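@here heads up, posting the sequence + SMILES for the zinc ion run so it's all in one place. Ping me if the SMILES looks off, I pulled it from an old spreadsheet.
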Amino acid sequence: MKIAEFIKKNHIKPSDCIYHTWRQPLNKKKERAGNIRVIVWKKEAPKARVEYTCPECGFTGYLETIWKRPFFIRCEKCGFRISVPRMKDEIKRERKQLN
Ligand SMILES: [Zn+2]
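bot reply: prediction finished. Complex structure tokens:
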């Protein structure tokens, strides 16, 4: 649990994050499987820390990348594209920030 350790070590609160989510992504059959956790710490932005279990092959990995929309990563083992779709409440929040 790299992200959990990272949060604990740095005493990161939700308000210290630009983005933090934990989802069940879709596999090729559009079924929810595996999981993906993404955190973007204000101090490190736009760096995103990503921990995942691939919904296709079950590989569990960790990587760091640049945060951008739409956000997706590729499984380091099978190359499957794991995307993190927007949630309705996130869209609302983003709209609020624009107004
Ligand atoms: Zn995979």
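MO: Residues 88-98 form the longest helix (11 residues).
MO: One more: The chain has a mean pLDDT of 90.
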